[in-house]
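Worked Example 4.2. Consider the chain below.
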Amino acid sequence: MLRIFFRKQRQLETLIYNYLETFKQTQERFVKAFYMCLEKSNLGDFDFMTQQTHKFESMADDIREEIKILMYSKALIPESRGDVMGLLEAMDEIPRLFELILNLIKTQKLMIPDFLVMDLRELTDISIETCDLMLEQVKLLFQKKRGIIAFVAKIDEHESHCDHIERRIITQIFESDEAPFLKLQLKEMVLKLGEISDYADRVSRRVNIISMKRRV
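Applying the procedure from the previous section yields the following structure tokens:
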């Protein structure tokens, strides 16, 4: 019985690390596609990277379902199942945002004005840095290592910085001479970009709570 239990634990750990790697692959393809949009180049490659983002987001969903099935076949003690599934479901909102942003650009044929490019690149860069910090924090949780709480402040600082840039971009949009409908489209896209760091911050706080519960 113990041998079966430990085998399932190892399977679970492998699936979790596969999920984190797939999350990272989704993120990388999103960044490539979004920067192509900012540079207004390689539109065929943009479509391809958008499809790749969807592909890896779907793979992450599938892995999460595998984790759920394995956990509820007694791979973890009952008290841990809700924490782990809640964490993965919270993380899953970010790849969905990646796909949503790219589909918004594609379906609305959204053209990014040149005066927004630098600020949008800054917002994206810091949002992705926030996700990278979150992934490192999650790894520490599953490796049962120290240092989790130090990431909370870093991620919160990044999230606040993103909020500041988001407000600046939206102000620029509505002070511009762009068409009113385009302003609304751009605002929607910027708000979705801003949600990336918001969700990373929520995940970070959830990781910290799970870590504290372990120590009680």
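Residues 2-215 form a domain with the Methane Monooxygenase Hydroxylase; Chain G, domain 1 fold (CATH 1.20.58.220). Confidence is low (pLDDT under 50) at residues 1-6. Compare this with Example 4.1 before moving on.
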